[in-house]
Structure formats: C-alpha cells, structure tokens
Automatic annotation (TrEMBL):
Transmembrane portions of the chain: none
Protein name: Glycosyltransferase family 2 protein
Composition bias type Basic residues, residue spans: 564-574
Start and end residues of each Glycosyltransferase 2-like domain: 33-133
UniProt entry keywords in alphabetical sequence: Transferase
The species this protein was found in: Nocardioides jishulii
C-alpha cells in the first residue's frame, strides 16, 4: 500500500495532487491483466491486435479472454499479446460474472476491464497503469470515441482512404505501433460518450465531483489495483446489466478516487448496448439501482420502503437496563426517514435455551432485548466482534451511538444526513454539555480511504485523515435533537375500548377521519403534480432534502435547467 508520508492526501475525489509520469518516461514494474468478457465477439481479432502493439511491457501484461458461452467457442487469433489465454465460464452467465471469473483466473497486481469491441491506441495500457504505480486506491477511466467500423477511415500509412473494417490484424497491429491508428477516424468529430463527458466537463475531470464521481464508471475501459478490486468485493456476479454503476458504488465505498486519463484513448467499434437500447436499459436498471446503490438517493423517494442496502446504519450498544435501550431503539425506528437499519450490539451468544429462573436470570436485560427485537426486520442483533460491526459498513453512512441515555428526535436522522450531504464531510461528532461524545455520523467512503495509507491505525489517526480528506466538525448533540431517553415522546396507537358501535355510525366516522388524514386526488391533481418541469426552470434541491410528505400526494421531481449541467443532473436523477 502507499505510505501516507510520501503520498499527498486527496481531498474528496480531487486526484490533482497526484502527478503521473509522462508516457514513455518511467519504468513499469507491476503486472497487469486485461480481463475481456466475450460473448460471440465480432471484433476480437482487431482488439487483440491492438493490444499486441502496446508500449506497456509484454512480460508484465497478460490478457484473459473470458468466453461467456460463445457459439462457437472463442478461438484466439494468431495476432495477439504473447501472454493471452481463454477462460471458459462454467457457472453463471453475463458480463459481471465473466469479469469475476477473469479476475479469479489471474494473480496480476493491476486489473483492467476492456470490452471486446475496443481498438486501443498504443499508450492505452501504459496510461492506465502509471497511476497504479503511484496510488493503490485510484480507479482510472479510459477515453473513447464511438465509431462505425464499416465507415471509411484513413489508411494506417496515410496514403489512401480505406474501410477500417477491412484492415487485417497485422495491419491493425502495425497501425497501433506506429500511432497511425489514432487517425483511423477523426477524434474531434467522432461520437463521444456524451453523458459521461458532460460529467467530466462540469467537474474538472471528476476532481470536484465529490461523492458522486462513481456514476461515471463505465466498464468498457477501466482499471484498478487488485487490492482495491478485492476490497470492493468484485462485481456482483448475478447482475445482467448495470454492473458498472453498482461496482462504481462499491469501489467508492471502499475509498476509491476516480479519474479519467485522456491519454488512454481508444476507438469503440460500434455503439454500446446501453446506447442502442437506452430506454429499455434504464427501465431494467431502475429497481436494481434502487436496491444496490443507496447513494443514488432520488431513486428512493418513496416512503415506507425497505432496500437491500440501506443508506444509513445506526449502531447501538445493548448495555445496562433494557428500558433506555428500548427507548433509544424505538426512537430510531420512529424516524421520519425510512432508509436505515439499526444494529443492536450485545453479547447475544451468552443467551441459550437452557433452563433458567426467568425472573432471576442473570441475563434478564439482554434476553428481554433479544425477545423484543429479534423479529423486527429493521433491527440486526450482532456481536461486538462481528465483522459487520468491526469492519466498514455496507451503507454509505454509519451513525454510532456511544450509549442509550440520550435518544434522537423524530427528525434527527434525516436532518443529520442532509447536513452531512450538504457539506460532503466525512465525519460529524455530536457531544453533550460536558464534551462527551454522544454520537458519530461517519461516511463509509471517507473512513475506508484511510486503509490505503500505511501508519494510520488508531482511531485518532483515522479521524485526522478523514478530516484532511473530507472534512469534519463537532457539534452539540442537543442541537440535533438528542434528549434524555425517558423524555423522548414516541407516538402510540390508540385502542378502541368503548362498547361496540353501530356499523353504519362506525363507517361514517371512518369516512370523516379519512377525509381529514388522506385527501383523495382527482385525475387532474395527479396530472398537475406529476407534469414535467419547464426546461427553463431553475435547479432546485433534490426532494430528499425537504421534510418528507406523509400525505398521499405524488412527490414532485426537482426541476433542472437546460444545457450541459441540466443533462448531468437529469442523468444522476434518472
């Protein structure tokens, strides 16, 4: 790993403090594996020929072509990098599964994902790899232009126009080696990956993108160290589409910094699958992203929903009397935001089914809490040494409570989360009147970043690095609504205990109550509240920043302006 002493701390996603060596002016030492999923590939010979002419040392490069059920099976062409092999998928299917299989088949220090329709220019691998010789937790995105292979290109020797699709693998290798491949099409007039480059443009190549940089990870040409790949958990194997965005979120939560390298150029031979079927892909990915990418919060505007990966994890110690613990946990379950889970940490392994005197049980308090919450799906009962407690959270934010003497108000969690999102800080510490820590709201990505620096092991050192990389502040817990647990009022359901009421009278009462609490919208109301915003409307905050509406009206989407930034906002929202 990279030592903290000799490597600048990158604030947020600002990669600019790290300056890579110029191409051709450094000595590579790390092994690199190109993982290439392939299902009935059309351009494999062309792509492998371009890889055979790279400036990155051949002895450090291997190419693993992962045959994902091609018919007929993939056969390697003659023109290819010398260390190229085919791995056949034997279990599962899909690009994500193939990427995982390819990574498992290699032990190289650097992993690069490359699609089987990417003609890469001669410095492509070198441009990627130079960053990974400097920093362990960078993710590098290559640059590309979409071109039609059958269109007239420029002959690699510049003598006559020729159809690029007719170039032999030997000609492709020669064109890449002498840099003539850069002129096969005109870079400036070829089609860019528009929405990705819009994000790059308005964020200074992701340097100012903050916590949202991950959305621009596209797997056609992307690289990372194996250490970062493994820390992120690798691709989710059973995903069929959308695996790039999900993995982008995974590496971001593992502490990654993402950046594009515009000298890692390539020609994408034809449009991508997502570009050819944009609306269908968007519809397919909607539930996937809602469940697995909690940082895409506008996809979770519905109230009353539970998600596979909650946005916030709240860690509560199960210590002492059960009464304040219950008051605190119930207060957390009563929050006016739904996107969180409570982790109740206790010595649950001490409890068994052996005979005890129930009223004299030495573990009475702990057993009471177990019985109260073991069937509550929003509460997890975990041991103090459980890796899910000691390790990094799956959720983007983790709120750690020091005890249960104080309980949060109903709006506390939502407002704390909004405060941290506004500042993009990595840590918010809440203290009582005596300066004792009541709670800590931690950004998982910020604390995961500290693992990539040697010599950062203590809590104080981690806090200091998070402060330097993301920012932090200490505030009064009382400002955030923490009150003594016994004083935290929690609404309770009323119970009808009067004598039986006449059925018609009871139903009329229901109608009156319903009219007060859940007004019915007319079709005109629905049309008005869900109408698209005008193109010239100003950019406004996302709806998650506003107090949630507990009524039945549809939540209005935020309006966005026209132009490049408007397109970026719409992309992030949709």
């Amino acid at each position: 790993m990279t030592g903290a002493a000799d490597r600048p701390i990158t604030p947020g996603n600002d990669w600019r403090p790290v300056v890579p060596p110029a191409l051709g002016e450094w000595t590579p030492t790390r092994s690199l594996c190109v993982v290439m999923p392939a299902h009935n590939p059309k351009h494999l010979a062309t792509v492998l020929a371009s890889l055979a002419a790279q400036t990155y040392p051949a002895e450090l490069t291997e190419v693993v072509v992962v045959d994902d059920g091609s018919e007929p099976a993939v056969v390697l062409p003659d023109v290819r990098p010398e260390r190229t092999r085919v791995v056949r998928v034997t279990e599962g299917w899909g690009r994500a599964n193939a990427l995982a299989c390819g990574a498992a088949a290699s032990d190289s220090e650097i992993l690069m994902w490359l699609d089987d329709d990417m003609l890469v220019l001669r410095h492509h691998l070198e441009a990627h790899a130079r960053w990974h010789h400097l920093v362990e937790h960078f993710v590098v995105l290559g640059d590309k232009r979409f071109v039609e292979p059958a269109e007239v290109g420029i002959h690699p020797w510049g003598t006559a126009p020729q159809r690029a699709a007719s170039l032999t693998p030997e000609q492709v290798r020669a064109a890449v080696a002498n840099n003539a491949a850069a002129d096969l099409w005109d870079w400036e007039t070829s089609d860019p990956h528009t929405w990705v480059e819009d994000i790059w443009a308005v964020t200074d190549d992701l340097a100012t993108a903050g916590t949202g940089a991950f959305v621009s990870l596209v797997g056609a040409t992307v690289s990372m160290t194996r250490a970062l790949h493994d820390a992120a958990g690798g691709p989710v194997r059973d995903l069929r589409l959308g695996e790039d965005t999900v993995f982008g979120h995974q590496v971001a939560e593992a502490g990654a910094v993402l950046l594009p390298d515009h000298e890692a150029r390539s020609w994408h031979l034809g449009l991508s699958h997502a570009m050819r079927h944009a609306e269908q892909v968007k519809a397919h990915n909607q539930p996937l992203f809602a469940h697995l990418v909690p940082s895409l919060r506008p996809r979770r505007v519905q109230h009353g929903r539970a998600w596979a990966v909650p946005f916030v994890e709240v860690v509560v110690p199960a210590e002492g009397s059960h009464l304040p613990v219950q008051a605190c946990v119930d207060s957390l379950l009563d929050q006016d935001m739904d996107d969180h889970v409570v982790v109740l940490v206790g010595e649950w392994s001490q409890l068994d089914e052996g005979r005890v005197r129930p009223l004299a049980d030495e573990h009475f308090e702990l057993r009471w809490l177990q019985r109260m919450y073991r069937d509550e799906p929003r509460v997890q009962l975990l041991e103090p040494d459980d890796p899910r407690v000691t390790g990094f959270s799956r959720s983007p934010l983790r709120l750690r409570l020091s005890g249960t003497d104080l309980a949060p108000a109903r709006a506390t969690l939502r407002l704390l989360v909004t405060d941290l999102d506004r500042t993009q800080h990595g840590l918010r510490v809440l203290t009582d009147d005596d300066g004792e820590v009541v709670a800590r709201l931690e950004r998982t990505a910020a604390f995961a970043r500290t693992q990539w620096y040697d010599g950062v092991s203590s809590d104080a050192e981690r806090d200091a690095m998070v402060t330097a990389s993301h920012g932090s502040s200490t505030r009064p817990a009382s400002d955030a609504g923490f009150v003594p647990s016994e004083r935290r009022l929690r609404p309770r359901f009323g119970v009808w205990r009067d004598p039986a009421m006449d059925a018609d009278a009871s139903w009329r009462k229901l109608q009156r109550q319903m009219a007060r609490n859940a007004p019915v919208l007319t079709p005109e109301d629905v049309e008005e509240t869900t109408a698209p915003a005008a193109d010239d409307a100003p950019i406004v905050d996302a709806p998650v920043d506003a107090p949630p509406a507990r009524r039945s009206e549809p939540v209005e989407e935020p309006a966005v302006g026209r132009g490049r930034w408007g397109r970026v906002v719409r992309r992030l929202r949709d």
